[in-house]
Specification:
The first copy, chain A, is α+β, with helices and mostly antiparallel strands. The first copy, chain A, contains seven helices and six strands. The radius of gyration of chain A is 17 Å and the shape is globular. Chains A and B meet through helix 1, helix 2, strand 1, strand 4 and helix 5 of A and helix 1, helix 2, strand 1, strand 4 and helix 5 of B.
């Protein structure tokens, strides 16, 4: 799939069909994710691939009650748990760059998923300790995001985006780029 | 360009030709960046497009001395300063999700740049206050990354990546995916 097509057509998907997703496909997505650039090329990211239904139910319970995203974690056949090792990234002026690194890899994963006909929807609002317990994640790693992975029930409509004039400046803050 | 081709062929570029990069191209990259998913679709990202040579020199001086990336900021005709508004993103268990949001948008920008024949190399190691001063960035925004943007002198070789067996687990931490 064309890069711009993937970027423009990708959506956050919350409803999934039960169709299976095979290991070969998941490996393709992980391969895309690991090619992202990272702080000093340290590659702090780790990925947990969860298929087990009980585990996915338990992961969904780590979300706040009535969070609409919880359902997707059970409905989709796979959940990806994105973790990071802060010691394999940098910290500058209070900014934890493992989160930026994780974002770079995650975006390649979600674009590749879309190109393969799969939907994702990254979730950050969960109880980290609960997720760690479900998947035996060590204390010194951080859980950055969860996403269901599966065949979308339908293509959701695009959510509005800020215009370039609202987010881009020229030379100095406040001088609109456009 | 095919998505996987962009993901596999993109490199961090540190040496640039002086060829100009026109506004239309930059707008295309910003358009790709703004389509990224973000915390509650808040889109905390802001982009500063710096062409002015004195400003680029000043930005390069915000890097630690002898940082090899500093040269690229002067050599390339454009520097993109990626900022974020933390109040337009979330915080969970000490994790500042504006950094993840910024990473998602930045990855779409660097992939699109590669597809357009342009090189980037994101830099996190700089003095934030100096960068803010050069571009009049308000106190409540964070400067997340700088990247030069220009025509690469050559395609650098690929840096080694961890094998999937080192970064991906199945069901539980420690059970290799592959």
């Amino acid at each position: 799939m064309d890069l711009y097509e993937a970027i423009k057509e990708r959506r956050s998907v919350r409803k999934f069909n039960p169709d299976p997703v095979d290991d070969g496909l998941i490996e393709k997505l992980l391969d895309a994710a690991r090619m992202a650039p990272s702080w000093s090329n340290y590659q702090c990211w780790r990925f947990l691939v969860v298929r087990d239904e009980d585990k996915r139910e338990n992961l969904s319970r780590s979300l706040p009650e009535n969070n609409p995203a919880a359902k997707g974690l059970v409905q989709a056949p796979v959940v990806i748990v994105l973790c990071a090792d802060p010691s394999e990234s940098g910290k500058q002026d209070g900014k934890d760059y493992y989160l930026l690194d994780a974002g770079l890899a995650l975006e390649q994963l979600v674009l590749a998923a879309h190109a393969e006909g799969l939907g994702t929807c990254w979730i950050a609002w969960f109880d980290e300790e609960s997720v760690k317990k479900v998947c035996s994640i060590p204390e010194d790693y951080r859980v950055v995001a969860l996403t269901p992975l599966g065949v979308p029930q339908k293509q959701p409509s695009v959510k509005p985006r800020k215009d370039i004039s609202e987010i881009a400046y020229r030379e100095e803050w406040g001088q609109s780029f456009k």
